[in-house]
Design goal:
Helix 1 packs antiparallel against helix 2. 68% of the residues lie in helices and 0% in strands. The longest helix has 33 residues. By secondary structure, it is mainly α. It is elongated. The chain is built from 5 helices and no strands.
């Protein structure tokens, strides 16, 4: 297996993991929207948050929809048609989703570990750690996916025959 086949499989795995973790995030937002609560499971809202706002559920539904759009972007990179999209455009979409996921994961991790207690009250329950696992794994996958899309080293699923032909052509 050559370098290009290896980066291809890393990019594919990153796209699948980023997509799945982002769908999980969207699912958490759906749960919070149904409950009419603010935030993520296990993370109580800050005392300064307006928890009486009637738009909380709508805002959570909006975040769930954005999560599904981001998951769709990650999944799109797996399609052969993604090669026809200008690399800069696809990279911008992937990095926008990835950076927002990474900043959210960093903030929640700093809050949960109490490194920055000013970010909100102490999280409670096992769901806190499940949420952090989803967010942190997703953030790492998005960063790897962004790097692969920017390099355009076949985040796209390709048949083994085509991979061998590309490697043979590049070794000439």
């Amino acid at each position: 297996m050559g370098v290009f086949a290896r980066t291809r499989s890393i990019g594919t795995a990153a796209a699948v993991i980023a997509s799945l973790m982002t769908v999980a995030y969207a699912g958490m937002k759906v749960v919070m929207a149904i409950r009419g609560e603010l935030g993520l499971p296990g993370f109580p809202p800050k005392p300064t948050s307006d928890t009486t706002n009637p738009d909380i559920a709508r805002n959570e539904w909006t975040l769930a929809l954005l999560g599904l759009v981001a998951a769709g972007i990650a999944a799109f990179t797996l399609l052969p048609v993604a090669r026809r999209v200008p690399r800069w455009l696809l990279a911008c979409a992937v990095w926008a989703a990835g950076v927002s996921q990474a900043f959210g994961a960093i903030g929640m991790t700093l809050r949960a570990t109490r490194i920055m207690p000013d970010l909100g009250p102490e999280p409670t329950g096992w769901t806190t750690w499940a949420v952090l696992l989803v967010l942190d794994i997703g953030a790492v996958a998005w960063i790897i996916l962004g790097w692969n899309v920017a390099r355009r080293d076949a985040v796209i699923l390709t048949s083994p025959r085509r991979m061998m032909a590309e490697e043979e052509w590049q070794s000439r």
